[in-house]
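Regression test case RT-17, inverse folding.

Input:
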């Protein structure tokens, strides 16, 4: 898997965090230069993880791409999405969970080409994501459903954590997104659940590192997910 260490431009979702860090850095520099130097180091770290990294989106209409950078922590082939007020009628789906580390690029990307069917925030707590079962049940989360050309759904669930306290996705219902397009951000870290149709052929394993918009997590048979 190719690693990208470029320092590209900052993502729009990352600017509020970087701007706040800049203000704190200036204030600390006035108080004591060592504190300002430490804060400057933190700013450089934030600039690295909040950038828009260059990614090579596969030209594969069957592919379902990773929505987030990180490590695949669990794979379940038959899971029901927890919240039902948006997901009425959806059958059990395969679920792939990605944990985004504090050293990973934070920008999330659309896993498929499709239209946003729904996007809503479910308020909750910000407990540790170490216990994924508790985090899914109790923590704040945002569910984003993309409808692909076949009419099936792919669902991305951003899950908050002690560090990820802002779940951002500004795409409303009806918005068309291409696979690999900017989707949003869980600022910073957190978990991401990706739900795909149960018929999908999963192509990743637990423990595998993945890159948003580049690593293929699954492939759908039949109609291509990018067909129009």
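Golden output:
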């Amino acid at each position: 898997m190719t690693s990208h260490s470029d320092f590209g431009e900052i993502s729009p979702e990352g600017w509020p965090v970087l701007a706040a860090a800049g203000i704190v850095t200036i204030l600390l520099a006035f108080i004591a230069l060592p504190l300002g130097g430490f804060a400057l180091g933190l700013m450089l770290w934030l600039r690295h993880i909040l950038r828009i990294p260059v990614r090579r989106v596969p030209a594969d209409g069957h592919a379902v791409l990773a929505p987030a950078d990180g490590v695949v922590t669990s794979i379940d082939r038959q899971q029901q999405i927890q919240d039902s007020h948006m997901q009425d009628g959806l059958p059990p789906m395969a679920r792939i969970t990605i944990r985004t580390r504090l050293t990973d690029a934070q920008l999330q990307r659309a896993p498929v080409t499709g239209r946003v069917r729904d996007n809503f925030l479910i308020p909750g707590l910000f407990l540790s994501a170490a216990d994924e079962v508790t985090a899914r049940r109790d923590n704040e989360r945002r569910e984003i459903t993309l409808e692909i050309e076949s009419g099936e759904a792919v669902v991305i669930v951003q899950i908050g954590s002690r560090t990820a306290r802002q779940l951002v996705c500004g795409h409303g219902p009806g918005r068309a997104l291409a696979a690999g397009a900017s989707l949003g951000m869980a600022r910073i870290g957190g978990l991401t659940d990706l739900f795909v149709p149960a018929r999908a052929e999963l192509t990743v394993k637990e423990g595998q590192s993945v890159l948003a918009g580049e690593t293929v997590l699954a492939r759908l048979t039949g109609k291509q997910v990018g067909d129009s």
